Amino acid sequence: EAAVLVLVAALWGGTGPFLRTGAAGLEDVQRQGRLQQLLAEISFLGLNYKYMVPFLLNQCGSLLFYLTLASAELSLAVPLCNSLALIVTLVTGRILGEDIGGKRAVAGMLLTLLGVTLCVAGSTKAQ
């Protein structure tokens, strides 16, 4: 279970920055009318492999998470996946050259990770 949850976190966290870069240019899609605008945006994203490949990988992570929840402890699975996904997103974004917010963002991430670690440690001791 733990290995699958780490894989889920890697899929979720690793695909986020790629989804942002793959969606670049979406704001330039302009059509008359709401329905035409919606269809044009769906078409732009759906035909863009730079968006669709990370999107499908992200959804595979969601499917794995759903399947794992049948046997995993919810109070451990959610914080573990979210905190690890946050770290993977930060690292992947940094590798891709994204502005991750400087020292404050890193400090916030570390504090979040510390809080999740304390919650998970307290939850496992209570069992």
UniProtKB/TrEMBL annotation:
InterPro entries, per the entry: TMEM234 (IPR018908)
Transmembrane segments: 49-67, 74-93, 105-124
Top-level taxon of the source organism: Eukaryota
Membrane topology term: Multi-pass membrane protein
Annotated keywords: Membrane, Transmembrane, Transmembrane helix
Any one cellular-component term (Gene Ontology): membrane
Intracellular or extracellular location(s): Membrane
Annotated Pfam families: TMEM234 (PF10639)
PANTHER family recorded: TRANSMEMBRANE PROTEIN 234 (PTHR28668)
Protein name, per record: Transmembrane protein 234
